[in-house]
Amino acid sequence: MVPPLALDIDGTLTTRDDRIDPRIFELLPAWDAPIVVATGKSFPYPVALCHFLGIPERVVAENGGVVCADGQVSFQGDRGRAEQAAETFRARGGDLGWDAADTTNRWRETELAARIDADEALLREVAAEFDLEVVDTGYAYHLKTPGVEKGDGLAAVADILGVEAGSFVAIGDSENDVSLFETAGASYAVANADDRAKAAADTVVAESYFEGTRSVLESVKSASA
């Protein structure tokens, strides 16, 4: 039996140019165990991905701020405080960096995100004043409530599913995956991962982006046969 999976999206299920690798639409629906999509993206993104993959909506979104599995949804984190911090950030000359539509933050429930070229030093200074933290995923800076982590979200989903969190294989690429790696039973960082993710992972694979993820899936499947 293959183990359940906890998979990041950006840098893990994507190509070098930030597109979803089309091979996931063949490989993931055929995986004969639960799959949890664990991401820093806002809630609708992983839900939509599950929908188009044709797999159950088992999701950890917003770096652990939103957990959804088997019809149950829960929220952790304080978006209101993040909005106050973002307002202060702007008042001091900062810019989250998005256009008027701001589809990155429009549907966020528990945190806010700034473009990776935003003023990091100022953002961290303001975050500290509001007892918030900034997490750099390599794709955005996330202004979030301390203690809200992907790993806790995975544990919550595992509890809903009635399986051990330690039975999961986790694959990711950035510092927001560290807690996911610590919670899962086996963890893999793809070659494009940042230093914190690589240090936390049990194994760093030679391949990057989804090519690295695919290599893990093939290896795990072979070992489980």
Question: What's the short version?
Answer:
This protein is α/β, with parallel strands linked by helices. The protein is built from 8 helices and 11 strands.
Relevant terms:
225 residues; alpha/beta; eight-stranded mixed β-sheet; three-stranded antiparallel β-sheet; 11 strands; globular
Give the proportion of residues in helices: 25-40%
Average per-residue pLDDT, rounded, comes to 97
Order of helices and strands: EHEHEEEHEHEEHEHEHEH
Overall 3D form: globular
Structure in words:
The structure is a single chain. The chain is α/β, with parallel strands linked by helices. Helix content is 34%, strand content 18%. It has helices at residues 24-27, 44-53, 79-91, 120-129, 150-161, 178-183, 195-200, 209-224; strands spanning 5-7, 35-38, 59-61, 66-69, 72-75, 112-115, 133-136, 140-144, 169-172, 186-189, 203-204. It has an eight-stranded mixed sheet with strand order 5-4-3-2-1-9-10-11, with helices on both faces. A hairpin with a 4-residue loop joins strand 3 and strand 4. Helix 3 (79-91) crosses helix 4 (120-129).
Write the layout of secondary structure elements.
Elements: E1 5-7, H1 24-27, E2 35-38, H2 44-53, E3 59-61, E4 66-69, E5 72-75, H3 79-91, E6 112-115, H4 120-129, E7 133-136, E8 140-144, H5 150-161, E9 169-172, H6 178-183, E10 186-189, H7 195-200, E11 203-204, H8 209-224
Parallel strand pairs: 1-2, 1-9, 2-3, 9-10, 10-11
Antiparallel strand pairs: 3-4, 4-5, 6-8, 7-8
Helix pairs in contact: 3-4
